């Protein structure tokens, strides 16, 4: 049975890949576009089957359809976000709303009822067969034998039907569990003490992978554990030629009532060989929630070129040895400033 489901999984996965390739080719052929809708529908059917009925790895497949459905949503957080679902689920429960938790519990209770009915019906059918053969009472007459046979078959059929219904209930339960991770994983992240705001799925997966490994395995053998706050962005300096050493210091003034700040950067050529820096490019990440005020950059000596405003990127030319340059620019908060007190 396990090999059967593995073969079904591999066939569906390969067929979906081939249909994707075929669909992309057919898009370029006008005469064959009528078949494109059928190909897309078959792709969606296979994608839905692979996502809901199987785990994402062939080695995780179980010998029953019910087991594969359950394992599918057990490994859904790992596939989508690299979250260790089994270890993070007890922590996630505390962040789920009561209304949503009640829906999850109801789906789980419905599944439990069906699978218990299936198990009890199967056990009853087996006990009836064994007791009938052992005591031989149902074998005395044809009428008793027929009634005993009907009862055994009825409980067997009931067991099969309840098992099939339990699979549907497991699918419903799994969708609720998947939704819990989709909706409440950010609340869990804050509850664990991490202050990160990933912008891409790849960044989020790296973050959850480190958190999951920290929970399961403890501190890594090499390196330090993931800090609770992301490191503050630093100013980047690109000097031409690279052998010239340049020292950079940065400061930010407190915001005014209008939400304007002044960023001051000191650039100094401290090269021991007294070499001149032909070009110094500075990429300064603006404080969060601020944007560069156009034409506000000034430099104490020499020419200054603005290359980009987000982040603020400047270029200075011909920075002589032991020479200090003071670069300043203004930025304004994107938040609406508070109205001034008229009194």
Structure, described:
By secondary structure, the protein is α+β, with helices and mostly antiparallel strands. It folds into three domains: 1-53; 64-231, no CATH class; 236-333, Mu homology domain, subdomain B (Immunoglobulin-like), CATH 2.60.40.1170. Helix content is 50%, strand content 17%. The protein is built from eight helices and nine strands. It has helices at residues 2-26, 36-53, 65-74, 76-81, 85-92, 98-135, 142-191, 201-217; strands at 236-240, 246-252, 260-269, 277-284, 290-292, 298-299, 304-309, 312-319, 324-333. The strands form two sheets. Strands 2, 3, 5, 6 and 9 form a five-stranded antiparallel beta sheet that branches. A four-stranded antiparallel beta sheet has the order 1-4-8-7, with no helix packed on it. Strand 7 and strand 8 form a beta hairpin. The longest helix has 50 residues, at 142-191. The protein starts with a helix and ends in a 10-residue tail after the last strand.
